[in-house]
Amino acid sequence: MERPLHDEELRYDLTTLIKRQRLRWSIRQALDRTKQGATLDETTGAYTWEFLSQHLGGLIGAAHTWEKHLTLVFFSVPGIVEVREQFGDEAGVHLTRQLAQWITTLVRAEDLTAHYGEHDFCVSLPDTPLHEAGVVMNRIAGILSYTDFAVPEVYQPVTVEVEVGMAELEPHDTAESLIARARENLD
Fold first, then answer.
1. pLDDT 10s digits, 136-146
2. What's the pLDDT score for residue 65?
């Protein structure tokens, strides 16, 4: 926005931002209603890995057709295993569920979060170039790494370290090759 600010321009810009955010929340609520049966990971409340793998086919097709970006981000949290070993399965499951909720909340409505294995999560970022995904990835990893999680029957704050990896769709990629590249880039 240019300065000096005019009341009408400011009101228009704020109204537009509010409408856009309300639309994103409506989209998120509609997507959340699709999490049923085979699409819902019961442990985390996120999408299942199988659903995201199938959904990637459509995202890849759309990205190629419309010449858009698509980036896949992996978050690996090995500390979940340590919490499970030290405090039991219930504590590990609770921490895994919290992490999935945080990741899902920190991405846009059109981004899908899936649980991938015991301590890994994957997020598809449609229409997002690699450098922008890096900003998202670092923001989320930073927030998770500096958060003290509360786990029932664990009488101390639980902190985790987050490993991240990402890959952007290339012209001849399949869902499998994109996934493999993103996982290879975990650090």
1. 999 999 999 99
2. 94
Q: Which helix (H) or strand (E) holds 13?
A: helix 7-33
Is residue 126 pLDDT above 80, yes or no? yes
CATH of domain 40-184: 3.30.70.270
The CA-based diameter of the chain, rounded to the nearest angstrom, is 59
How far apart are the C-alpha atoms of 49 and 38, rounded to whole Å? Answer: 10
The domain spans of the chain are 1-33, 40-184
State both tokens at 106: 């920190």
Q: Which residues contact 92 (CB under 8 A, 6 or more apart)?
A: 80, 81, 83, 84
Q: What span, in angstroms and rounded, lies between the C-alpha atoms of 59 and 36?
A: 20
